[in-house]
Amino acid sequence: MKLNKDRYMEHKMPKNATVDQRIAWHLEHFKNCQFRIDIPAKLRVEMEKRGIKIK
């Protein structure tokens, strides 16, 4: 998998991000990048609680 470094550098996770910001960042990242990162388990559980499905 290829890292889209330019996009990644332009769309960094906000400092001290809230749970909502973290979820939004991960969803956008999965939607736009060939590079896939693991979603932290704690955040994945929160997404499941909210009914947010991840491919």
Please state the average pLDDT score: 80
What is the first-to-last residue Cα distance? 16 Å
Q: Any idea what the shape is?
A: globular
Number of helices: 3
Order of helices and strands: HHH
The number of domains: 1
**Helix/strand-derived class?**
mainly alpha
As a percent range, the share of helical residues equals 40-55%
Radius of gyration, whole Å:
11 Å
Q: Give the number of DSSP strands.
A: 0
Estimated share of beta-strand residues: under 5%
Largest sheet: none
Unreliable stretches (pLDDT < 50, length at least 5) are none
Please provide a written account of the structure:
This protein has one domain. The protein is about 55% helix and about 0% strand. It is built from 3 helices and no strands. The mean pLDDT is about 80.
Short description:
By secondary structure, the chain is an all-alpha fold.
Describe the SSE topology:
Layout (H helix, E strand, L loop, with lengths): L4 H6 L8 H14 L8 H9 L6
Q: What structural keywords apply?
A:
single chain, 55 residues
